[in-house]
Amino acid sequence: MGTKGRQIIEARGIKIPELVKLLNKAFADEWLAYYQYWLGAKVAMGIPKEAVVAELLQHATDELRHAGMVADRIIQLGGTLLLEPKAWYEFTNCGYEKPDDPDVRVLLEQNIKGEQCAISVYKHLMDYTNDKDTVTYDMALQIMEDEIEHEEDLENIKDDIILMLGKKKKK
Ligand code: FE
Ligand code: FE
Ligand code: MG
To answer: Which of 28, 41, 127, 151 gives the lowest tally of CB atoms within 10 Å of its CB?
Structure first.
């Protein structure tokens, strides 16, 4: 059904089914990222455990919020959301890295990789919708800003760990 909002973006050359597919792929990524962070926070071991757990939990909350933002846009576009978790694996761009090593340094690396992938996913969505669908573009920009902050936060903890280990060695 052609709502006014959909007609406008179609007139500008957006193929809605194609856009919905890209959004569903991002939706799958967000759920997997949420779970990877949530589980990582449960199993994390090492130093600084508390700082890492707090950061992972905060990021998990953000990823779940992103899943909601993407879902709302898919529904606005008249699309169908992925209805089963098993579809997340079919659609994901960034995959899922199971936290089978609880070492905080390994968890940080795994999640940094995920954030870098997420940043390119939203960059692509922004390029795809630029000048054609400002609503999706704005949403992708908002989410990308969070993903950039996530990567930065994890890198900062990693740097703290490297600094801490370096100082111990000198003693
Ligand atoms: Fe996210
Ligand atoms: Fe993130
Ligand atoms: Mg953070």
So the answer is: 127
Residues measured by CB to lie within 5 Å of ligand 3, the ion: 58, 153
Query: What's the topology of domain 22-164?
Result: Ferritin (1.20.1260)
Q: Which residue ranges make up each domain of the chain?
A: 22-164
Ligand 2 centroid distance, CA of 145 (Å): 9
Where do we find the tokens 């455990």? 49
Q: What residues form DSSP beta bridges with 103?
A: 45
Q: What is the pLDDT of residues 59-100, one digit of tens each?
A: 999 999 999 999 999 999 999 999 999 999 999 999 999 999
Ligand 2 center to 6 CA (angstroms): 28
Give the whole-number percent of the chain exceeding pLDDT 70.
Answer: 98
CA nearest to 44, candidates 101, 84, 126 = 101
Instruction: Give the Å distance between the CA of 77 and the centre of ligand 3.
Output: 30
Q: What is the pLDDT of residues 6-45, one digit of tens each?
A: 999 999 999 999 999 999 999 999 999 999 999 999 999 9
Ligand 2 is an ion; its neighbours by CB within 5 Å are: 147, 150
